[in-house]
């Protein structure tokens, strides 16, 4: 995707939303259980403006109890949660024209696209920075200097540990989104990326 | 209690923040504000977070991960670690930062805007963290702990325990009339009118009337205690308790505006507190044989534990423990004298070191000695046996023998020899000797008739001997706070030796300055106060050392009680990970203060010029 301006803006002039979805599984038939979003503005994470919500399942019968429990969610919490349409509206309103920051984003993007389609909503793919891609780029660069260096692990937790970031509470949409946002800031520095273009 | 810091486990931001000072001082309802205002920034290694003389700080910062370095003119002044806050002095003063704050390694930083900071400061304890000096902040920690468990507030005035007005009887009454009045009012003691005040108790009726074969018509005035020992009604509960233990009395009349407002008895204390020092005192009174003393030390630590839980400071607990141990020694000496007969010449049993200063932790080594008046072969034999009896009894009671050998079994001399010894230390000091002998300058007589003025005179005038003071100052620099390069606390063998690193240096600093001021005071806090009054120490310096001393003593006591509960020997090692982050920070500051005061003293006495 081309940036509408001739010159790519400096990375920290852009507003980002780190986003994470917890889902009942990885198949197309699986459902979104929760979403966490944390904004990055002026290069700083504004945690206070985060968004976190559970999602009322479209097909409650199809959920396995184990699948839910892995995300520290109780079935009755899901029943009381807002419906998917409302949550999608909250998500898209927040993103607006901002950039999405995802870790291994193809899965989350797939679910977002899929759910929009299922509800007959319009989905415009935002500009995405994928921290897993940034990690791969960092490895590539390192291999040019040290051909036999080991690649960074691609898991969120392991990658953070390698970059000196503290352990976080995993499998929770909000904490994973925040963990992704912090990882993004660390990777941005390692890659010495100055413009958005260098990050996407 | 404080939450332990969670270095290695996953934790969400808010839990991390509220586990660290000063956010742990905020009420729960303020945490929402903390969360709403939270910003997270990343500063790569070697980048500058704040610049000295640069623009003023816009935020309150807390380190989430990594280490920051405070620099002044390129010189590292201090390291800040996870959970520590910075940026606030500039925020408060609206001035430029006093240091460069540089990322020693990649820094993950939590921060809050000036506006959020100002709103949070509406909460008093949180605000005090930033505005008060070290001394005040240490008090804040102590208060926090006190809040955790508080079965009984021993700082309340003792008059709170008075349940009825006092009962008086005329001075010319008989013991029978007194006994009738006591039965009528259902009281165990009665006050006797007149000046000075008298008192008659159940115990007096038994011991001084019945046991002596006296009749009911015996004049009350013959058997009462007068003047009765009294205390002001406003005296804190704890002090009244210590006084009663100290004086071996069971009934205490309380005085207010020149009249008696009531009498408290020790049974009231017993109701107030199951593990009361008075219980142990009574046990000592019943002791007939050193064998009966088994379990004394366990009971003592139980008392210390309940006093600590009751919110008492370490110095009050130290005084209480020392009073009880004094009583133990007196009990043993009484038994020894019963065994060996009366002494051939007057003597004094002295204690020194922490016992002399009344700053005993739970189980200190024995530090005692014996001084007697006239030398003779008979005296030598008698006092050797007396010392052996008491030292053996102390071992029975659970006091380990002193490894340095400062026990009355070895230190048993006529006063003339003691005078020579003290004069030698004062007039011809050698560094090694003084290092060991300095604790003798904390001596206190626990029992015996022999006056010790000759020794006290030498101690009181020792401050005029400049060489002596310089050597004593040098000896006090023997132990240094375990602060490493760049002001980090050094752990050795799995912990920080809080005695060598902090308590002992403060104790010896106080001793040097008090002797310099010509004072005979023994307690460290009292010595520091006197040193400040006599301008040997700045009032701020003295106050800071007093607070640091109380803080260190308290942490040590808590650790030792924990050890005992886990059936481990009590020692002076503190593991940093067992402290809250606020305590770790204060420990560091306390050590830094001690080091600073040691340096000041070194310069003042030119200790570097001594061999």
TrEMBL record, chain A:
Q: Which UniProt keywords apply?
A: Exonuclease, Hydrolase, Nuclease, Nucleotidyltransferase, Transferase
The question of whether Nuclease is a record keyword is answered with: yes
- Domain Exonuclease, by residue range, is 15-193
Top EC class per UniProt? transferase
InterPro entries reported for this sequence: Ribonucl_H, RNaseH-like_sf, RNaseH_sf
Q: Which Pfam families match?
A: RNase_T
Protein EC: 2.7.7.7
* Protein name, as recorded: DNA polymerase III PolC-type
Species assigned in the record: Meiothermus taiwanensis
UniProtKB/TrEMBL annotation, chain B:
Would the keyword Transmembrane turn up in this protein's UniProt record?
Answer: no
By its UniProt entry, which Pfam families does this protein fall under?
Answer: CBS (PF00571), cNMP_binding (PF00027), DUF294 (PF03445), DUF294_C (PF10335)
Would the keyword Ubl conjugation turn up in this protein's UniProt record? no
Gene3D superfamilies in the record: CBS-domain, Jelly Rolls
Q: Which SUPFAM superfamilies match?
A: cAMP-binding domain-like (SSF51206), CBS-domain pair (SSF54631), Nucleotidyltransferase (SSF81301)
User: What InterPro entries does the record tag this protein with?
Assistant: CBS_dom, CBS_dom_sf, cNMP-bd_dom, cNMP-bd_dom_sf, Diverse_CBS-Domain, DUF294_put_nucleoTrafse_sb-bd, GlnD_Uridyltrans_N, NT_sf
Q: Which GO terms describe its molecular function?
A: [protein-PII] uridylyltransferase activity
CBS domain: which residues? 162-217, 224-281
Keywords, sorted A to Z: CBS domain
Domain Cyclic nucleotide-binding positions: 22-120
Q: Which PANTHER family match?
A: CBS DOMAIN-CONTAINING PROTEIN, CBS DOMAIN-CONTAINING PROTEIN CBSX3, MITOCHONDRIAL
Q: What is this protein called?
A: Hypoxic response protein 1
Species whose genome carries this gene: Meiothermus taiwanensis
The gene for this chain is: hrp1_3
């Amino acid at each position: 995707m081309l940036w509408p301006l001739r010159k790519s803006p400096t990375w920290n002039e852009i507003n980002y939303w780190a986003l994470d979805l917890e889902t009942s599984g990885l198949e197309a038939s699986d459902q979104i259980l929760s979403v966490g979003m944390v904004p990055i503005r002026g290069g700083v994470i504004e945690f206070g403006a985060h968004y976190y919500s559970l999602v009322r399942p479209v097909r409650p019968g199809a959920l396995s109890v184990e699948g839910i429990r892995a995300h520290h969610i109780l079935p009755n919490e899901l029943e009381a949660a807002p419906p998917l349409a409302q949550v999608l509206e909250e998500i898209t309103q927040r993103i607006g024209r901002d950039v999405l920051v995802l870790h291994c984003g193809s899965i989350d993007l797939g679910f977002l696209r899929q759910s929009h389609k299922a509800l007959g909503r319009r989905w415009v793919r935002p500009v995405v920075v994928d921290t897993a891609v940034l990690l791969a780029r960092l490895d590539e660069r390192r291999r040019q200097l040290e051909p036999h260096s080991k690649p960074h692990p691609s898991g969120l937790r392991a990658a953070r540990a390698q970059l000196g970031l503290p352990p976080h509470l995993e499998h929770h949409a909000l904490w994973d989104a925040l963990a992704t946002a912090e990882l993004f800031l660390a990777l941005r520095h390692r890659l010495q990326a100055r413009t958005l273009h260098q990050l996407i | 209690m404080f939450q332990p810091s969670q270095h290695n486990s996953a934790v969400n931001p808010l839990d991390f923040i509220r586990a660290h000072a000063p956010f742990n001082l905020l009420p729960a309802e303020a945490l929402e504000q903390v969360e709403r205002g939270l910003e997270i920034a990343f500063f790569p290694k070697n980048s500058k977070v704040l610049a000295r003389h640069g623009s003023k700080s816009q935020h309150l910062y807390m380190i989430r991960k990594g280490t920051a370095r405070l620099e002044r003119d390129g010189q590292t002044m201090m390291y800040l670690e996870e959970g520590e806050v910075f940026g606030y002095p500039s925020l408060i003063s609206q001035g430029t930062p006093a240091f460069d704050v540089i990322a020693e390694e990649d820094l993950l930083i939590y921060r809050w805007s000036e506006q959020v900071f100002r709103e949070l400061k509406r909460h008093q304890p949180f605000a005090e963290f930033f505005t008060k000096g070290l001394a005040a902040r240490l008090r804040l920690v102590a208060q926090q702990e006190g809040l955790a468990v508080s079965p009984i507030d021993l700082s309340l005035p003792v008059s709170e325990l008075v349940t009825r007005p006092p009962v008086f009887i005329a001075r010319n009454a008989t013991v029978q009339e007194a006994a009738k009045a006591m039965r009528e009012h259902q009281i165990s003691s009665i006050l006797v009118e007149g000046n000075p005040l008298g008192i008659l108790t159940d115990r007096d009726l038994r011991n001084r009337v019945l046991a002596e074969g006296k009749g009911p018509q015996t004049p009350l005035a013959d058997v009462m205690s007068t003047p009765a020992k009294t205390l002001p009604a406003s005296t804190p509960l704890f002090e009244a308790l210590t006084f009663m233990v100290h004086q071996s009395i069971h009934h205490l009349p309380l005085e207010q505006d020149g009249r008696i407002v009531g009498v408290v008895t020790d049974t009231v204390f017993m109701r107030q507190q199951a593990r009361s020092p008075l219980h142990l005192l009574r046990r000592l009174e019943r002791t007939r044989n050193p064998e009966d003393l088994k379990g004394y030390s366990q009971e003592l630590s139980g008392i210390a534990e309940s006093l600590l839980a009751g919110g008492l400071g370490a110095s009050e607990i130290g005084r209480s423990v020392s009073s009880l141990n004094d009583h133990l020694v007196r009990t043993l000496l009484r038994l020894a004298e019963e065994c060996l007969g009366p002494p051939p010449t007057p003597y004094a049993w002295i204690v020194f070191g922490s016992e002399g200063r009344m700053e005993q932790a739970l189980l200190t080594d024995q530090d005692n000695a014996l001084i007697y008046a006239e030398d003779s072969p008979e005296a030598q034999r008698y006092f050797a046996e007396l010392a052996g009896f008491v030292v053996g009894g102390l071992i029975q009671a659970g006091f380990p023998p002193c490894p340095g050998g400062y026990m009355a079994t070895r230190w048993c001399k006529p006063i003339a020899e003691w005078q020579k010894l003290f004069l030698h230390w004062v007039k011809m000091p050698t560094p090694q000797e003084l290092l060991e002998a300095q604790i003798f300058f904390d001596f206190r007589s626990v029992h015996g008739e022999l006056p010790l003025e000759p020794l006290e005179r030498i101690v009181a005038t020792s401050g005029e001997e400049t060489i002596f003071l310089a050597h004593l100052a040098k000896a006090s620099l023997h132990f240094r706070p375990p602060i490493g390069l760049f002001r980090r606390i050094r752990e050795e063998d799995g912990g920080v030796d809080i005695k060598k690193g902090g308590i002992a240096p403060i104790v010896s600093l106080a001793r040097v300055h008090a002797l310099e001021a010509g004072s005979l005071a023994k307690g460290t806090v009292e010595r520091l106060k006197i040193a400040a009054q006599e301008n040997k120490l700045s009032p701020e310096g003295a106050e800071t050392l007093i607070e640091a001393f109380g803080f260190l003593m308290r942490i040590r006591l808590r650790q030792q009680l924990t050890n005992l509960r886990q059936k481990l020997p009590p020692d002076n090692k503190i593991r940093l990970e067992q402290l809250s982050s606020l305590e770790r920070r204060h420990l560091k500051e306390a050590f830094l203060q001690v080091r600073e005061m040691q340096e000041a003293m070194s310069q003042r006495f030119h200790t570097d010029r001594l061999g």
